[in-house]
Amino acid sequence: MKHLSVAGKAVTLLFTAALLVACSGSDTREADEAAARAAADAAARSAQDAAAAEAAAEAAANQQRLDEAAAAVGNVFYFDFDSSTLKPEAISALNAHIAALQGNNRNVRLEGHTDERGTREYNMALGERRGNSVRDYMVANGIASYRIEVVSYGEERPIAYGSGESNWSQNRRVELK
Question: Please, which residues have CB within 8 angstroms of residue 15's CB and are 6 or more apart in sequence?
Fold first, then answer.
C-alpha cells in the first residue's frame, strides 16, 4: 500500500479535488449571497440616510424662514392703559411667532410690564395679566402651556423714562424672549 499505482494516485487526486470543489462551492455561494444582501442593505440605508438628511435640511430651512418672519414682526406687544386685551397688531405678530414655535421645541418667557401709574402691587398684577393674555392666545393656537413662562416686572423695568403718554405707552408691554 506504500506505493500507489498511477491510476490510484489519479483517483485519489480527483476525489480530493472534487471534495474541495464541492465544499468551497456552497461556502462561496453563501458568501456571495451574504455579500449581495449586505450591499443591498447598505444601499438601502444610504438612500434612507440621504432622504432623512434632505428632509432635515428642508425642515431647518423652513424653520429659519419662520424664525426670520417672527423676528421681522418684533417681540414686543403693546397694550392700552390699564388693559390686558391684545391689540390687533399684537395678534398678527403673535401669529408669526406661533408659526415659528410650532416647528421647534423652544421654550419662551413672556415678561409683562406696565407704566409707572398705579401702586406697585397693582402694576405687578397688571403685568402678569398682560403676560397671561399673550400666553392664553398662544396656548389657544397650539403652543403647549408648559413651554411658556410668564413673569411680571410691573413698573420696575421701563424702556422710556419720564412722564407723558408717549413714554407711558412704550412701557405698557409684554416682551417675548
Answer: none
Distances (CA, A) of 30 to 42, 43, 160: 18, 20, 80
Q: What angle do CA 131, 135, 141 make, to 5 degrees?
A: 155
Rounded to 5°, angle at Cα 39 from 33 and 45: 135
Cβ atoms of residues 108 and 149 within 8 Å: yes
Cell matching residue 49: 440616510
Cell of 163: 412722564
Q: Are strands 148-154 and 108-113 parallel, antiparallel or unpaired?
A: parallel
Rounded to 10 degrees, the C-alpha dihedral 47/49/54/59 comes to 140
| Tens-place pLDDT, residues 38-78 | 777 777 777 788 778 887 777 677 667 767 766 777 899 99
For CA atoms 128, 133, 139, 142, give the dihedral sign. Answer: negative
pLDDT higher than 70, residue 6? no
